[in-house]
Design brief:
By secondary structure, the chain is mainly α.
Amino acid sequence: MLLASIAAAAFFSTFAGGYLAFRLQDKLHLILGFSAGAVIGVAFFDLLPEALDFGHTQDGAAPIVARTALGFLAYLVLDRVLLFYGAAAAQPAAETLRRGSFGAGILCIHSFLDGTAIGFAFQTSHAVGLIVAIAVLTHDFSDGINTMNIVLKNQGDRRHAFRWLLIDALAPAAGIASTFFFTLPRAQFGAVLAVFAGFFLYIGASDLIPESYHAHPKFLTTAMTLAGAAVLYAAVMLFG
């Protein structure tokens, strides 16, 4: 019953964030700026520290950071491949939409891993599970914002954006449910988190930040990026 309540809370938190991003499209550059800071904040303040915590006992810090770099470079290559084939096919709009779907898919997988983290934490102890659940719920709202933004900015329409938002909102519940059927070794979970930290760094630094600032090179846009990172840092420090 408790895990079901947490899954429902994660759904509504994620969906609310995405709906807010949709309603404020006229302020999309500010939302994108905040989203960029939040994505980078998740990578630096949440995913990477957790990866180091999970994996340092066996691998040490250097291999974990190397996996983060691998994730960053792998996403770069995939992104450039999508751009290349888009140019070759002379269908930039369709290819841009595909890039948005790819980025949203990565964010949804991250949300699924958030759910597995909750499930694994409850396997450890009830108290640890509650702490992890609170930490996840605090950034689910920004996850919804990020998913909606990455689809909208890549020419996705309302239907396409809300479909990805629904998947992202359901992903934590699916992750929680999956932990009833398997267990993931602690060190391997750290490796997965490290790779996703690299993915998030690429999405934030090479996609969301340039897009938010390109059309609106204003101080407020930069301030929103800093605010997004600060909010994630505060959430992790308070609840992580």
